[in-house]
Fold:
Amino acid sequence: MAFHISKEITPESLASRLKKGESLLVIDVREPQEWHAGHIAGATHIQLGQLLDRLDELDSAQEMFMVCRSGSRSGLACELLSERGFDVVNMTGGLNEWTDELV
Structure:
């Protein structure tokens, strides 16, 4: 399945921006057991299956960085949200390629 993702960021670039103290909205779309096993500090957990039901929790004017395990579900999340006018960026490679700390 191929998604049209207009904006992407590498795990290294996202980690670097977070370490610099940038206030970024990171949305983790993984399942609850994946989230509890470890996630990016400060991330918001909205699993992919609930994303469309929770749109009212998101600000369409704020850039959001979508993450998952490998980049596939976050890519789908980006497509679903961008179709609805949200400013989204997919983290390529997902947490499989994340080398920074997880909480």
